[in-house]
Each structure stands twice: as C-alpha cells, then as structure tokens.
Amino acid sequence: MRPVLLTALILIATAEAAVAAPQFGTVMKLPDVTIAARATASTDFGAAVRDILNAEQVIQAALQTGDERKLDEQSSRLLQLQSKLVKETEQGDARRACSQAAGDLSAVAALMRRATRGDEPAKAMLAAEKTGQSYRDHLAGCDKAIAAANPSR
Questions:
Q1: Which domain holds residue 7?
Q2: Pairing with 44, which of 90, 93, 107, 143 sits 20 to 30 Å away (CA)?
Q3: What is d(CA 122, CA 25) in angstroms, rounded to the nearest whole number?
C-alpha cells in the first residue's frame, strides 16, 4: 500500500508542478491566493470556498497518512456541499463553478482512496490527475464568479 500512496503523491505533485500558481497545501496548488479573501463578501459562497479549501487540506493530510476513512468523510461532505450549492444557484449562474469544484474535489478524494486500496491504482491515479485539473479550473471559475458578483473587491 505504501508504494501506491507514494506513487500517487508523486503523480499529483508532478502534474501540479506544471500549474504556475501560489500554493495553499503541499500537494495541490490553487489558481489564485485571493480566492478566500474575495469570497468573504458573499457569505454563503465564501463559507463554501473555505469549506472546499479546508477539505483539500484534510485530503492532503489523509493521503500522506493513508487514512481512507478521512478520504471517505471528505468525499461525502463535499458531495453534500455540492448539492447545497446547486440548489442555491440557477442554471447559467457562474457561481455554479463553486459546486463543480466541490464535486471534482470529492471525486479526487474517492479516486485516491481507490488507488490506496490497490483497486486499479494506475487507472485511479490518472483519473484523479485529470479530475484534479478540472477542480483547479472550476475553482478559478468560482473565484471569477465571486469577484464579478462583488466588484468592489
């Protein structure tokens, strides 16, 4: 199990080294450091962004320790958050990117859990890498949407 975890961490770190962005955690890089600051103007979405960023840190720690239970917990929490955000936005609302980011990060956690269990680890890690990129893209879109909704920031 340990070689799979190390391989997963190396794969993610390598993929994310290509993304030139400030870093919040040790494994995943985020597209914009200002996201949390800008998000606070919209309380619900600000709290959602903080929840997503906190979940990302917990997932990173769980990957380093191999804690499958934490990966499962975060995946479930993020799916609940995604559902809540979808309900709070209408079709075409750019802030839906926030719900997509939550869903993507949930999928990354589930895929990494699968990889640590040895369930087709190469396939799971490749899918996690692609989903991780989607997560970063949606998080950047979320940041833009929140900034557009609060032009004074």
A1: 2-149
A2: 107
A3: 23
